[in-house]
Input
Amino acid sequence: MTRRSWLLLPAVAVWFAATACAPPRSATTARNTLVLGIDVSGSFRGRHYDDAIDFAAHYLYGHVKGLGGLRVPTAVFVGSVGGDQPGEVKSFHPIQDITGKSVDQLRSDLRAWFPPEDRLTDFNAFFDRVATLVKRQNLVLAPVNVVVLSDGVPDVPRASASDTLAPFKRLDISPLEYLSRNVTVRLLYPAPTVAAGWERGVPRRRVRLWTLDGEVMAGWRGQLTIGQPLETQERLWAWINDNVDFRVRTRVL
Output
């Protein structure tokens, strides 16, 4: 072996050691934010609240664990959509309150955190608070997925009985518009007519909107196999991927 080869050996050894210690690129999770809001108004309590709480527990568990290929969030905020007066600010629970818990624990916590006792469904206050949290936590530019479990009916007066879209035109998601190039709002559990009101009436430019009505949402429970561990409930996670986490295209203006 030449003298030059002997001199190169230490450098080669250091390179191999560094390569062996470095984590694989696939192990790095891309930054993305999941925000989940639960309607705590009286109008939602008598319809889908119980099912929504159960679904939310499974949804959060599946995403935090990355089950069935669900996208693992790097930040999570869980809050309520409600209020006893317009503009009321609500608390959001961070990812640390979600991770390490079973579905049963999450279900119990969600019920305790968000009892359906509020008078209003204040979507504008919710969206404004989401934007504030994302900016404060320095999560701007990363994809933001906002999931709202609600009947979707705005608590705003209708100026004219003939203008069915008027209440939806007063919903303000503008605070979310420039948080990221990829911001998606998903409304789960509305009636079909309300879903159409959101799709046709809510003013937006960059924010992507996806709705899934209550009748379709009822199908998630049928994907569960009794007695099978959640980690192997592939039908459930595939249903969520295909129906709830559907990749929405940017709206063409």
Observations:
- The chain has nine helices and six strands.
